[in-house]
Amino acid sequence: MSNPAKPGPILEACNLFKSYDEGRIEALREVSVSIQHGEFLAISGPSGSGKSTLLQLIGGLDAPTSGEVYFEGSLLGSAIDLDTYRAKHVGFVFQAFHLMPTLRAIENVQVPMLALKTSADDRVKRAETLLMEMGLENRMGQYPNQLSAGERQRVAIARALANSPSILVADEPTGNLDSVNSARIMEMLTGIQKKHGMTLIIVTHENDIAEMAPRHIRIRDGRVES
Ligand SMILES: Nc1ncnc2c1ncn2[C@@H]1O[C@H](COP(=O)(O)OP(=O)(O)OP(=O)(O)O)[C@@H](O)[C@H]1O
User: Fold this and answer.
1) Pairing state between β 40-44 and 66-71
2) For this UniProt entry, which residues form the secretion signal (predicted)?
3) Which residues span the domain enclosing 52?
4) Residue 4 lies in a domain
5) What are the residues whose beta carbons fall under 8 Å from the beta carbon of 188, sequence distance 6 or more?
6) Domain assignment of residue 6, yes or no
7) Which pTM does this prediction carry?
8) Which residue CA neighbors atom 26 of ligand 1 most closely?
């Protein structure tokens, strides 16, 4: 779990550039952002502006074309490799949930723990605890297609928390949900952030969601606007 007392930012992105298609698409240009331990940051901007690309670089899902990302002062891809960083320090929540359709809810939550070689007993206990915290004690044995959209996203949040990451990144976490479920998911994410002192980074194009965050940056044409 994160340690809010640690000095310095938890994440520091320095002068990030990311291009695709052999440089034909410049998704990010000269983006620098510093994120503190326990901070809740929202990133918004128009479609195609580079929000998801920035989240992928911060979350270690991809590497920048140039520039650096530091986690607690360690350069990603150098002092700490991306697999280790993702497995130990980052939990991911996506708009489309990305659950494994052939696994039950309780099995989906255990997937990240396999990478850290957690024992089977500990995996099951941890998954049960997390699913209970998400209010899913009666849905643990269900497959994703037997769950509502809101329930699927709660399973995905439980999975994101499996390895007690210090950073939770969420890419349009309410994008596939109605307003009631959106409000519930946001309540859960912000509750987790406060309770565990986690760093929460949310990409959203919805203003009312972005405004829940104490800090909000906007991206336009691959650059930070404010
Ligand atoms: N893997 C990829 N290959 C080629 N181009 C890509 C790739 N991923 C993103 N892009 C392009 O990079 C730019 C930024 O995309 P990105 O997904 O980061 O934007 P976004 O702000 O998250 O958009 P949206 O709100 O529509 O999800 C877009 O022009 C997009 O088409």
Assistant:
1) unpaired
2) none
3) 11-224
4) no
5) 134, 154, 157
6) no
7) 0.93
8) 47
